[in-house]
Write a structure and sequence with these properties.
Elements (H helix, E strand, L loop, with lengths): L2 E4 L4 E4 L3 E2 L12 H13 L4 E3 L8 H12 L6 E6 L12 H15 L6 E5 L9 H12 L6 E4 L3 H8 L4 E7 L11 H8 L2 E5 L22 H4 L17 H12 L8 H10 L6 E2 L6 H9 L8 H19 L4
Parallel strand pairs: 3-4, 4-5, 5-6, 6-7, 7-8, 8-9, 9-10
Antiparallel strand pairs: 1-2
Length: 327
Amino acid sequence: MEQRVIGRINQQVSVVGLGTWQLGADWGDVKEEDALAVLDAAVESGVTFFDTADVYGDGRSEQLIGRYLRERPDADLLVATKMGRRVAQEPAHYTLDNFRAWTDRSRANLGVDTLDLVQLHCPPTPVYSSDAVFDALDTLVEEQRIAAYGVSVETCEEALTAIARPGTASVQIIFNAFRLKPLEAVLPAAAEAGVGIIARVPLASGLLSGKYTKDTVFPPDDHRTFNRHGESFDQGETFSGVDYESGLEAAAEFSALAPKGATPAQTALRWIIQQPGVTSVIPGARSPEQARANAEAAALAPLPDATLDAVRELYDRSIRAQVHHRW
């Protein structure tokens, strides 16, 4: 699979990675053996980048990846985790002492001495402007607790603030065919600075797969049931902030754009891959089959200009008014 370089740290990652929120919590239950099978299928398909967080299943996702790393020491992987969401979201909690405690926990969960990449996990907006926070992150690098750091953001403004910090290696941001705003300023700024862009929620929580209908019922412990209006965390994390009913209609139109031999989900991933400035896209997977299908998107031919134009037109007509001004 194609590898792309995070310029500021000169590290390569696969253009399709694996997001592991599903393996921890908030997507219904996933058995341990099934989770490990997903990780294995991704690696066998060429994935070299896993993304997790200390809050996914309160550490379960990290622990599963840690077990996989022990069982597959030959796997050449870069594992990114996140920190900061296990406490009340107040800027005062973003201190060096807390960072040390949080990264110690993640190091234990993953079974490593040094974490490859640690991302602030969508912290309060003032955190991005705090010199003390970034000094503390630099200290973690100096102490070899972490090799590099980045941020996971909710808004384009937060992303641009983080990119301006010289130590920021990567920015993880919601970016997909229903969330085009990062194209305007974030992706060009990241490319110029050598900052990696990790595209999350690439299928708009599955909407862009074209598999859901108005009659689809998600489990009670699935965030697509309990967070549609931002009841538990930022609404943008669920269906990219798009209203479910109108999103279904737009998704049906998007599905019709899939080239022969490709699924709508693969088309959505291929669209992200070919946007200038994107380093890796991190779809989740609940089964080995999904992991393999997602990885196959990297081998698809680039989408033609007519398809790219159609995606833009669909966004401007059906989605932009809902999400553009918010994120």
